[in-house]
Amino acid sequence: MALAWKQTAAEYDALYMQGFNVARMHVDRALRDGRKRLAVISDLDDTVLDTRDYWRGIVADGVPLFDDARWDTWVATNRATATPGAIEFFTFCRDAGVEVFYITNRDQGEKTLELALGNMVAAGLPFADAEHLTVLRETSDKEPRQRQLAQSRDVVVYLGDNLNDFSRAYYVTDPASRRARLAVDREAFGRKFILFPNPTDGHWVRAIFGDSEPPPTPENLSKLHQAAGR
Ligand SMILES: [Mg+2]
Prior knowledge:
Blueprint: H1 2-8, H2 10-32, E1 38-42, E2 49-50, H3 52-60, H4 68-75, E3 81-82, H5 86-95, E4 99-104, H6 112-123, E5 133-135, H7 143-152, E6 154-160, H8 175-185, E7 193-195, H9 203-209, H10 218-228
Parallel strand pairs: 1-4, 1-6, 4-5, 6-7
Antiparallel strand pairs: 2-3
The structure holds magnesium ion.
Magnesium ion binds near residues 43, 45, 46 and 162.
């Protein structure tokens, strides 16, 4: 159902449009307020890059869960497109003098940066250059780089499809702890943090399986059913 929704639901597209509209509202206000050295910090996959083509292949070939080797092969094909509203929002930022920085924790080895930039260029995203893209191959902790950027820029909004894109506190291995943390950040959603939908992958998966990319063992498939109900 999650994949059918991603592939067909206009609601999926609308949620991206909504997210970018909200982000633009905040950038507009920051510009009107005369704030300087404005920046937006964004995640890459499933925030500004639409990965549905990868998932279509997964379903077509009957692969039960996310498959890392297939992902690495797919990344190199440059078939990612921009998510709905991404190009418009980032073009608006560029034209208004607002810098966009991307941070990803992809890992395709030595070529990770080059491959990611290739995807961004193919998708038509502004700021597709090494100065504006940070690749974190060794860790998925984005906070140090975010803090570093925030020292010299006024970051208006953070964009992501994974709560770990906003705070490392969500990188925990149980769903209840992730939910509990929302009490701390609730005022930030739709203000500082703009969240996009992703019902197929992310650290919510890690909270269930203890692994963001669990192998499709009988035990894990059983856990999947338990997570969905019983
Ligand atoms: Mg992502």
